[in-house]
Hints:
The complex is a heterodimer. Chain A is mainly alpha-helical. Helix content of chain A is 32%, strand content 7%. In chain A, the strands form two sheets. Chain A has a two-stranded antiparallel sheet with strand order 1-2. A two-stranded antiparallel ribbon of chain A has the order 3-4. In chain A, helix 2 (48-59) crosses helix 6 (178-188). Chain B contains 16 helices and no strands. Chain B has one domain (28-475): Up-down Bundle (Cytochrome C Oxidase, Chain A), CATH 1.20.210.10. Chain B has helices spanning 14-18, 26-69, 82-114, 122-143, 157-179, 188-213, 218-253, 260-274, 289-301, 303-317, 328-350, 353-359, 363-393, 400-432, 439-444, 447-475. The longest helix of chain B is centred in the N-terminal third of the chain and has 44 residues, at 26-69. Chains A and B meet through helix 1 and helix 2 of A and helix 2, helix 3, helix 6, helix 7 and helix 8 of B.
Amino acid sequence: MPLLLTGIFLTFLTSWIGLVAMPYLQIGRYKPEIDEVTKESLPPAFSGEADQGAVVYASNGCIYCHSQQVRPLEAGSDLERGWGARRTVARDYMYDKVAYFGTMRTGPDLSNIGARQPSLEWHYQHLYQPQVVSPGSIMPPYRFLFVKRRIVGQPANDAVKLLPPDQPEPGYEVVPTAEARSLVQYLTSLKRSSYPLPEAPEETPAK
Amino acid sequence: MSSAVTDAPSKPSLIDSISPSSVEPVEDKAERAEIDRAMRGVVLLFYGAAIAWLLIGSLFALIASLKFNIPGFVADTAAMTFGRIRPAHLNAVIYGWAAQAAIGTGLWLMARLCRVSVRHGGILYVAWALYNFGVTLGILGILSGAGTSVEYLEFPRWASVVVFAAFALIAIWTVIMFRFRKPGHVYVTQWYILAAFFWFPWLYATANLIIFYLPVQAAVQGPVNWWFGHNVLGLFFTPIGVGAAYYLIPKVIGRPVHSYYLSILGFWSLAFFYSWNGMHHLIGGPFPAWLISASIVASFMMVIPVITTGINHHFTMKGHFGALRWSPTLRFTVFGAMCYTVASLQGSSMAIRSWNQITHFTHYTIGHAHIGMYGFFTMVMFGAMYYIVPRLVEWEWPSATLIRWHFWLCAVGISVMFCALSVAGLVQGFALNDPTIPFLASTRFTLAFLWMRSVAGLMMTAGHVVFAASFALILLKAGSRRQRPTLFAAPEESAA
C-alpha cells in the first residue's frame, strides 16, 4: 500500500507542479504597466460598476455561449473576423476577479465587444430583444433584467428605446435594472486586445 | 440467494465434477453475503439519490436543449435562463448522478474486493446526507444566480464546502477499507478505486482554494480550472468506470482478465499522463505555449493506457461476445467500455492543434463530453447497478422487458446525440473558421442537428424513467421470487 499511495501521490504532484504552480509563477504575478504616452495603466482597471457587471455576467452564465479569448492568426479566424486587433495574452486579464475564458461560441467572442459596440443603447436593446437587433440570433431575451413601468411625470433618462414589436404601450417605459446597468458597463469596458502591448504587437491578417 | 456464482454456467470436466475444491466453500459465500448486508443501506442510498438526480438533470437538459431552437422558451424567468439551466444540468448529472453512482459502486467494489465490511458505517450515512444537502444547495444556488460560471465548479462557496466535507468522509472510509483489507492479491479494480478517492478530494480542495479563496490573478485560473475539470473526468470518473469494467466483465463471463501486466501498465500510464491533459481545453488561449504543448503531448500519450485497457478487455471478452445476448450487466458494461475507447481516441485527436482549430468552441466538444460521461461512464454505472442491486436487496430485477427498454432507449439515444452533435460541431467549426461566412450562419447551420439532439435526449430521459421504475420495483420486491438472475435470454449451455 505505501508503494501504491506514493506512486499515486507523485504522479499527481507532477501535474500540480506543471499545471498549477508553474502557471502561477509565469503568468500570475503581473504588475501594472504604465503606458509612456497616456500614463494610463495597461490593461486599464475596471470601474467598480463594471466589476459588479462581471458578477451579473457570471450569475446569468454568459460564458456558456460566449468566449473571451482571441486566438492568434495561426490558431483560428478570430482576428480575421475583427474580434480584436491582436490575440489576447495573460496580462489582459490581470484585473478580472474571475476569468471568463469560455469554451463555446454559440455567440461571438466578447473580448473586445466594448470596442465593437461602444453604445450603451445598443447593448440595452440587444439584451432586451436580441432577435430584433440581430435577426437570426438564438440568444435568449433578458427581459428580467429590465422593468416595465408606468411613466410618472417625465420619462426616465435611461429608458430604453426599443424597436417594434417590443415597444411598450403609450404611458409605459422600459428601464434597465441596476444589474442591467452594471452588466452593460462591464460589456462596454471589454477592450482587452484593442491596443498593442509590448509583448503582443497588433497583428494584421493577410488579405 | 446470491446469484453471484451462477452467472456463467460452464460444463465441468470429470475431475471437476468429483473434486471437492471445485465447489465454492460455504465460508466465501457467507462472507460475501455479510459484506453485502453491511453495505446495503449505504450503497442503496447513494444509488437512489443518484437516480433521482439523473431524472432532475435530464429534465434540466431537455429545457436547455429546447432553448437553442426556441430562444424564448421559459426565457422570462431568471432561474430558467439558459446560462443557469445549463450549469444546473451539468452539476446535477456530474455531482448528483455520476459522482453518487461512482461512490456507491466504488464503496461496494472496495468492500467486496478487500473482503471487509465497514465499521462505524453510520458515518457514511451522515456523509450521504451532507453530500446531497450540499448538491441541493449548489443547484439552488446556481438557479438563483449565485453560480460562479467557472466550469465544473459552479457551486457557490457555501455549497462546495459542504460537498467537500462529505466527500472527504467518504474518501477516508474508502482508504480505511483498503488499509484493513484481508491479505491476498490486490486486484486492479482496487488500485483504480483507491486512486480515484484519493485524487478527487485533493483536486476539489485545491481548485476551489486557488480560484475562489486565494487572490490569484485571473490568467492562472484558466489552467487551474481545466487541471481540475479534466482531472475530474480522468482521475475520478475514468478510474471508477474502468475499474468497474475490470470487475464486471470477468465476473459475468466467468473468466479472468486477459493480462495482469497490461492492467498495471494501463493504470500507471493513466495516472501519469491523464493529469497533464487539462490545458487542451485552452488551445489558442492566452497561455504559455510550452504549457499547451505539454498537454497536447500528454493527450496523445493517453493512447497508451486507452489501447492497453481496450486490448485487455477485448481479449478477456474474446470468444464470449455471445454473452451480450443474455446479460444486461455485460451489455451495458461492454457498450460503455467501447465508448471509452472511442471517446478517448477522439479526445486525443481533438488535442492536435490543426484539428482543434476547427472543433474548439463548437458542439463537437459537447458531443465528445457526452460520449465520455454518458456513453462510457453512465452506461458502465448502469451495468454495475444491474449487477450490484440484486445482491443488496436479495431480489432479482422484476422485468427483463424494462431492462431491454432501458438499454435500447439509452444506447440509441446517446448514439444519435453523439452523431448529431459531432456533425453540428463540424459544420459550425468549418463555418467559424472561414471569415467570409458571417458568424450568425455558423449558428444557423447547427439548428436542425440540435432538434435531433433534443429528440435523442428525450429518448435517454425515457430510458432513465424506465430505469427508475425498475429500481423502485426491485426495492419493493415486486413480482415473485426468482430462482435465476433476470437476463435477456437463457444463457448458452456451454461456455464458448
